[in-house]
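Data availability excerpt. The first of two example chains:
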Amino acid sequence: AALLWGTILLACSCGPGPPRVGAAPLLAATYVLDDANGLGREFDGIGAVSGGGATSRLLVNYQEPYRSQILDYLFKPNFGASLHILKVEIGGDAQSTDGTEPSHMHYENDENYFRGYEWWLMKEAKKRNPKIKLIGLPWAFPGWIGKGENWPYDYPDITAYYIISWILGAKQYHDLDIDYIGIWNERAFSSKYIKLLRYTLDKHGLEQVRIIASDRLWEPISFVMMIDSELHGVVDVIGAHYPGTKTVQNALLTGKKLWSSEDYSTFNNDVGAGCWARILNQNYVNGNMTSTIAWNLVASYYEELPFGRCGLMTAQQPWSGHYKVESPIWITAHTTQFTQPGWSYLQVDGHLEGGGSFVALTDGLGNLTIIIETMSHNHSKCIRPPLPNFNVIPQRATFYLRGSFYMVETLQVWHSRLDFESGNSSLFQRLNPVQVWKGRFSLNLNVDEVYTLTTLKTGQKRRCPEPPPPQPFPSNYKDDFNIRNPPFSEAPNFADQTGVFEYFVNASDPGDHVFTLRQVVVQRPITWVSDADQTISVIGNFKWVNMTVTCDIYIEKPRDGGVFIAGRVDNGGIYVRRTKGVFFWVFADGTYRVTSDLAGQEILMKGLAGVRDNAWHTLTLNIQGNSASGLLNGYLLWENVIISKPGNGWAALGTRSFEFAQFDNFHVE
């Protein structure tokens, strides 16, 4: 009877049933999972990046309960993505992909640990998962660190002091313990600086903070570590970006932890989910990487900026409350809900005979989690690097559990199937448990599937009530910036693209302009990309064509200071230097200009305005069809300027250079 029962159990399998009569038999293969001869590498967790840059910009403006729901989907254990790691940008006042993030030290004698939103985000993550690991990494640095040079390593003691200040501020003001610190995102590293950083960390009692280097490629960091024993001693993790699931020999020879410290960066539809499923497994199977970190955490920036919707989920409409839990969230859950940092990979090859991969992990206390993916080539392409061709076919996999797993009798099953025919994907569904007979079970695997088989019974697919439907940005929008104790340093919905615009209390103003918005970066930062030479913050609906923009402006810089308001602004992010639109400028020397570009080179009209510095003036820009006009203090200053292109874009405001200037009573219609 027992024998017969075993045969019946073996014939049962989750997956798509037996092949049809006349169909070719499934490719069958066996795989052994055994811990008797020791374990593989220690697992360090799955995470995501906020920043690099301003990718969470719009998230903070969401009203409750929607903001908390989004955070629950990202961070709450056994809920959604249940992330193990949060990596944030250490703001450097410069453009770092989709915007600028403010530094905690704009100037040498300035410290403020309440700017931006990364502090808030780390606290929200910790609130939901006290065990989450935190990483800080700079993309750019304030200009004073380089003393005028676009380079952070000429004065390494200053750079180290700046980074240590951020770590100490996280603890002192927010009770946040930073676990890992990086060097300079995707740019050169300095061995001298890395050693000094370690020394300075230790001197400040921060021995527990680990160093990741170099957040670029496997080389030259791995080679330099092999020939410099002191550097080898201070780098804890080699982090590579977009490694294509491969590592290099030197990296392996260092004996260090290897991470894909930035990966994914792919549009978050089902192909993005396929990309994510494939690399989450294959970064270990092919490349021995024990952590994979997605750029980016949540697409909370205007979609028309570079790499729109390249987050694990989408939350880009705080004005409507609409957000979308995209399929990569549930692909993440297949790994994160059934593993923890500190678990170990089993020593297995991990390649499936019919294409695809599997990993197996254990906590060393008897628990076992197996994650299988069968993503096809065309349905799992990431944005980079190019993906060599491969084939995946339906197959039958039989697993033999050996060693301490031999006694496992039942495995919980979670399943996702990406359906590219009907678009009707099934994501993170709990199936009937698999019965294990004498350490053996079988599965029929189809193409574009993910399975998790686990001894853990804690997995959950949680659902919040459906969020409100999407709505375009309000077509009539005002902000007078009159807020005494703002919860964040930046005004809602303004997305800074060069420079930093902050709430400001103008204590010397006796009248209507006590609370304003002020541009505060007065020296070109050590940049990560080509920031503009002007500062600019965009807002609104990229599809806007006809608009009236009004704003009170205050030039602080005498003689050559200047400010603008703009409409139909067509660019931002890493492309900010080439931004076009309709720009209405006034200058401290009393002149005005109308240009079709942010650089101010393509002049459509110019003349005298009589504006002066350190006085308030009201600018109005009206764009209708192919014509624009401008008012100063309510009086027509110029009109009938012909606009050929761009045909649509955001509203914006900004300054002629890195200079102080103030804005108030902003209104776009």
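And the second chain:
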Amino acid sequence: ELPAAMPAFRQVGEKQLPQEVVFMAWSPKRDLIALANRAGEVLLHRLANFQRVWSLPPNENTGKEVTALAWRPDGKILAFGLTDTKRIILCDVEKPESLHSFSVDSSITYMHWMEVTEESSVLTSFYNAEDESNLLLPKLPALPKNYSTTAKIFSEEKSDEIMKLLGDVRLNALVLGGSSGFIEIYAYGMFKIAAVAGVAGSCRGLCLSSDLKSLSVITEIRDSSDNEAEITYFQASNLDTSLLSSYLPEVTRMARKFTHISTLLQYIKLSLTCMCEAWEEILMQMDSRLTKFVQEKNTTTSVQDEFMQLLLWGKASLELQALLMNQLTVKGLKKLGQSIESSYSSIQKLVISHLQSGSEALLYHLSELKGMALWKQKYESLGLDASGIEEAITAVGSFILKANELLQVIDSSMKNFKAFFRWLYVAMLRMSEDHVLPELNKMTQKDITFVADFLTEHFNEAPELYNRKGKYFNVERVGQYLKDEDEDLVSPPNIEGNQWFNFLKNSTHLKESPLLFPYYPEKSLHFVKRQMEGVIDQCLQKPADVIGKSVHQAVCMSLYKTSESEDSTPQLFKLPFLWNDKTSNIHYVLFTMLENSTSKIYILRRHTDTSRSVSNGILAVEFGNFLSNSINESSDSRYYSCLDAHFYDDETVTVVLKESVEQEDKERVLAQLPLSSVYTDEDQDRELIWDSTKRLDEQSGEIPTRTVFLENQWRVLENMKAQYVAVNGIRKVSCVLSSNLRHVRVFEMDVEDDGEVEEEEEEETT
């Protein structure tokens, strides 16, 4: 007999978790594993001792029920889907913050994020020339840190966070599958590049091949025509996505542009949020004090006249004196003056540095996109449409105009308020009979006219405004631009006598000119921004529909039925499992058919060779006895049933097995099954090529079975009812989860577990 070997795989951590884990996904690039639990939290853990890095608690706005997880291939962004709000969140791996999110039309049941590995000279040159825009456009300035809610989005001073969304220039695609046949592909995880129709059932597995030629899908179709309980059967479909692969350079370019555009829209949105926060409530003080004054006073003179009298005669009525001295006070006036100045200048800075540079960059990318759309032979078949992009450019132009208008309003408001406050300050000092410094006392005729104009224009009572807003005055003109409402501005800018507007009015031809951006004098900045987002979304939609329609089903096979099991534990990491071998275009599907016996695991292999002919072969694998040493029992080979199986890499499958002997404590085993022991050379023709008109489980008797005896790549999992496994062959790690979903163990798969090594390490760490 052989000496007892060291157990294979080295255990590096174990934890009992407070909440039930429903999803696990290893990071492709680092030893990190993302988990989602029943409570709706998303957690990130390290491999070493299963230490927690961060957790993102469920949130009212985003949602509470996580149904899918996927990592961007560079490991910098984690995507998760929420079913209650139907949103997809892209989260930064460094800290639990949402960088981008979007809504979808269905609740997501599966996500797969892949990278395109195809190489071509055109692509390589595009990857290298990616930074053209960086040479031409100024770098976007960082968003300020000191505004409360934005600080949650960008905790560092740099706004490079948002640039993380762009990620690597090499094309990657996030494939989403949902209920009732919903499948969408998002390039770079942000831009919807295809909305695929025509697949029945709710999606249980997806795999897009790395050359973008085919998309394999496994769906679960609920069929309640039988009298029994609902029966679901699985079917594997293979969709031909050759439009994407034949236009790969164009798709990449277009998707990259759209990703830049989405990122910039997000940047503009955040800049606007910062502006809204720089605008403070204290600025409303003047309006509300004056309104209160109108309601309480019992003389007939208007507020405007009261102030005019003070300006011209230097004498104020007792009521106005009471308002100024008791309610506004000298101190209050100073404070109000400072608030207005600091607030207005921050808003102004944000408009100049952030909004303008963001929207200029947006114009640049949209114009490039329009250039692409005009190159019809390359881009027309992808659904790029020049007229839609034209409209988007126009909408961005209108937004820039509105931002400029806001700058002018801030400019004039600051001038007016300064002069007005300076005059009022002196008048109030006089009332309180304080000493007025001589340099404050000088007031030229010009200053007086200026203040008089300000009073005439801004201090007239407006009863209809009172009915709309509950105040008679609108002295403060900046806030209205930042309000997120559909209604018109309270006091739009005065364009009477403006020569340009008169010129436009009188020339019929210029009105229709595409070179002139339409101007919405009555609308707020938010309104114009929303309109711009809507138009851009519209022009981003079209390619997805066109490409989606080009996808057609190449093959569709019914696999097997499952009846509703008595213990309705949700089979969360469930088989069937899809894998696509990048090097040789083979799609594998792993599954077990509970109806017959779980002791076999079935491997379906779809091979597509260069002539695009497809062969589907299937084998069943059962595990011979490798735990007990007595030979005579091995006649019955049904020793183990397979609980979970995942591809570890292109050559190996990781499985969790359970002894099926009739005894009390059944051992659970974690094992590596090499495909070479399944597909040996001599039985190349032993795979069943089946009749696709019938469901696979109806012909399961004909499926050839191989019995495999594992040699050393297995380990008994003591004191653990293991049920599920998540693996990552690149990092050579696995994570086993118990059937109660709370007990986790992590292993390094390529190291043998030596007791001694661990002790030494522990000493070092302590």
